[in-house]
């Protein structure tokens, strides 16, 4: 028997080798570009953006809906100075809100930049709302010396600060909306019962709390809407590795149905804290169209 002839393996052409090198170089270049571009975007681009989320609640009817706008966690600091609020003010005022609600954390650490107090008041005055502007306390409004100035600054800016308190607002067609505000749950002394004690006759109830996970306390209280902030939506969104804040572990961003009546919305905020970057969590203004 004759031995089969041994075949010589085909040689890789020079052209093929060069093509492979070009592909590898392209992949490497793209990887290096991403390493440079992603931090630049997270620190220098996304924190400067402002997105308006529109949320419709209730069943449509012939009555004029209530137009509510929520902002949260401005976290004014050396990284987010008051002049950057102009874009937020423009976005909010463009919605022509009936009611503007702020769910806490005005300054990031007030003791480091007390000079921001006067310009902050002027920026707060620039926010417009047909019926009124209301706010609650956040944990940063207690910390860093802010506890001494927060309520005065907000009041001077035209906001009513609610601390375990509430008001009933009568709309032009006679409908009544209860608006309550819970004290901060980390550094304050919150009381759901004290807050709801202000509630009497009403057609719709909205309560504000800074930390979203305490919203479960409003289940079964005939409260239609709870608004919260604090979470920053994780602030830097890393796939498969969610970043969560204390008392913002269960509810982090967006709309939740707590029971048959009560819904919770968690606003992801405007500013930053700790790491002064955002990725995948664009600063948010929330506009609610509420049919009562």
From TrEMBL:
Pfam families: Metallophos (PF00149). One of its GO terms (molecular function) is UDP-2,3-diacylglucosamine hydrolase activity. InterPro entries: Calcineurin-like_PHP, Metallo-depent_PP-like, Metallophosphoesterase_sf. GO terms for biological process: lipid A biosynthetic process. Signal peptide: none annotated. Residues 67-233 form the Calcineurin-like phosphoesterase domain. This is Phosphatase. It comes from Lactococcus garvieae TRF1.
């Amino acid at each position: 028997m004759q031995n089969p002839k041994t075949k010589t393996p085909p040689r890789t052409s020079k052209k093929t080798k060069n093509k492979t090198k070009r592909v590898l170089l392209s992949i490497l270049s793209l990887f290096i570009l991403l390493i440079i571009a992603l931090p630049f975007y997270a620190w220098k681009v996304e924190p400067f953006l402002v997105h308006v989320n529109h949320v419709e609640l209730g069943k449509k009817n012939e009555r004029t809906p209530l137009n509510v706008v929520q902002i949260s966690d401005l976290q004014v600091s050396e990284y987010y100075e008051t002049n950057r609020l102009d874009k937020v003010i423009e976005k909010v005022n463009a919605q022509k809100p009936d009611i503007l609600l702020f769910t806490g954390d005005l300054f990031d650490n007030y003791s480091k930049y007390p000079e921001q107090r006067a310009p902050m008041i002027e920026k707060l005055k620039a926010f417009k709302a047909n019926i009124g502007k209301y706010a609650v306390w956040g944990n940063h409004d207690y910390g860093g010396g802010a506890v001494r100035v927060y309520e005065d600054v907000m009041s001077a800016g035209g906001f009513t600060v609610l601390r375990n308190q509430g008001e009933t607002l009568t709309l032009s067609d006679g409908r009544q909306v209860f608006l309550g505000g819970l004290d901060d749950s980390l550094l304050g002394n919150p009381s759901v019962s004290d807050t709801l004690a202000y509630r009497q006759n009403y057609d719709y109830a909205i309560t504000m709390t800074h930390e979203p996970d305490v919203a479960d306390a409003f289940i079964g209280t005939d409260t239609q809407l709870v608004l919260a902030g604090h979470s920053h939506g994780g602030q830097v969104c890393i796939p498969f590795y969610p970043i969560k804040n204390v008392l913002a572990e269960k509810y982090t961003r967006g709309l939740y149905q707590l029971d048959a009546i009560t819904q919770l919305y968690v606003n992801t905020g405007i500013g930053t804290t700790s790491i002064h970057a955002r990725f995948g969590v664009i600063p948010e203004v929330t506009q609610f169209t509420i049919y009562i």
